[in-house]
Amino acid sequence: MNTQIRRTIALGAMLTATVGLAACGGSDSTSSATPTAASTTAPANLSVEQANLVGPGCSAYVTQVPTGKGSVEGMANDPVVTAASHNPMLKTLTQALTGKLNAKVNLRDTLNGKDYTVFAPVDTAFAQLDTKTMDNLRKNPQALLKVLTYHVVAEELDPSEVVGRQVSVQGQDLDVTGKGNTIKVNGANVICGGVKTANATVYLIDKVLQP
């Protein structure tokens, strides 16, 4: 994907957040999202190996959420923000993406609408942020938008493709290193990666990335 397209996507995300699209504002509806062909129903009781997942926390995730919309197979049926909202480890991220952390930043429709790779900080990652940083994200929409879009790449990358230097929607590079169960992004550990949603590939990570 060329630089101009990336800039266009980043600008589109900024406009979505800044003007607070009426279609997004505070609603949990995802009717405007158009799932891709990847939104086929995944087989029940999908194992870590069957799902092509990587990361030391995948087995624990599958055990914690074995069935339902927040499970590996359940997330495959919804676009990414909707899928994340059902995952019990991604409550804070979901709030940040849907206007509940800062009312002026709502990326639900933007991220539900195209193909992405999302490095998704789990709740314990947000809990590591100091009070000053969290207060700034709540009060400063541009700061929150910058952080959120830094966790997104404007194409789907599975575990065999993700390692290397990737350009975030925010515009700065992400350095993805390692292999198998030891993949890192900017030094943050991938807890469980390669989780498919209807339009994205998700990597649960243990830190909030700072551009």
Task: Annotate the secondary structure layout.
Layout: H1 3-19, H2 58-64, H3 72-75, H4 80-85, H5 91-97, H6 108-113, E1 116-121, H7 123-127, H8 131-139, H9 141-150, E2 152-153, E3 164-167, E4 173-177, E5 184-185, E6 188-196, E7 200-205
Helix pairs in contact: 1-9, 8-9
Radius of gyration: 16 Å
- Strand coverage percent: 15-25%
Assign the structural class, choosing from mainly alpha, mainly beta, alpha/beta, alpha+beta, or little secondary structure: alpha+beta
| Overall strand count | 7
Report the end-to-end length measured between terminal Cα atoms. Answer: 21 Å
Unreliable spans are 1-44
Number of helices: 9
Q: Order of strands side by side in the largest beta sheet? A: 2-1-7-6-5-4-3
SSE pattern = HHHHHHEHHHEEEEEE
Could you describe the 3D structure shown?
InterPro entries: Adhesion/Biosynth-related, FAS1_dom_sf, FAS1_domain. Residues 1-22 form the signal peptide. This is Cell surface glycolipoprotein Mpt83. Pfam families: Fasciclin. Mean pLDDT is 83; it is low at 1-44. The chain is built from 9 helices and 7 strands; from the N terminus they run ααααααβαααββββββ. The radius of gyration is 16 Å and the shape is globular. The chain has a 7-stranded mixed sheet with strand order 2-1-7-6-5-4-3. The chain has helices at residues 3-19, 58-64, 72-75, 80-85, 91-97, 108-113, 123-127, 131-139, 141-150, and strands at residues 116-121, 152-153, 164-167, 173-177, 184-185, 188-196, 200-205. By secondary structure, the protein is of the alpha+beta class.
